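User: quick one, sequence for these tokens?
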């Protein structure tokens, strides 16, 4: 994925409604695992190309650990359990859209910093 722009990466990991319509579909198709891989790839891409512009270099697949009580941070629950255990399909869509919004906000912040230079 060498040479991709932030926009291309965001498009690559874009969360589509068709795969998020059903929590069961997400689990059966292992889409969450693919999402985690894409989030990690995106993080590596940002670290390699935009480190000076990043407030947080933690992968989006691990940022949730920061909100856990300190005692739980050493041995945190996994991404899928944290975000999707006992969620309805509607809640899964909200969670996925919230992650997407955070990623887009981060990309916008990077672009603004670059433009200010």
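Assistant:
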């Amino acid at each position: 994925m060498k040479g991709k722009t932030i926009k291309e990466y965001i498009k690559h990991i874009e969360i589509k409604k068709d795969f998020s319509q059903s929590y069961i579909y997400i689990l059966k198709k292992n889409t969450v695992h693919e999402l985690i891989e894409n989030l990690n790839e995106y993080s590596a891409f940002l670290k390699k190309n935009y480190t000076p512009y990043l407030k947080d270099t933690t992968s989006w697949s691990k940022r949730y650990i920061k909100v856990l009580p300190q005692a739980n941070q050493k041995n945190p629950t996994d991404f899928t359990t944290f975000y999707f255990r006992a969620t309805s399909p509607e809640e899964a869509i909200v969670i996925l859209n919230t992650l997407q919004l955070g990623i887009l906000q981060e990309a916008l912040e990077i672009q603004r910093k670059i433009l200010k230079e």
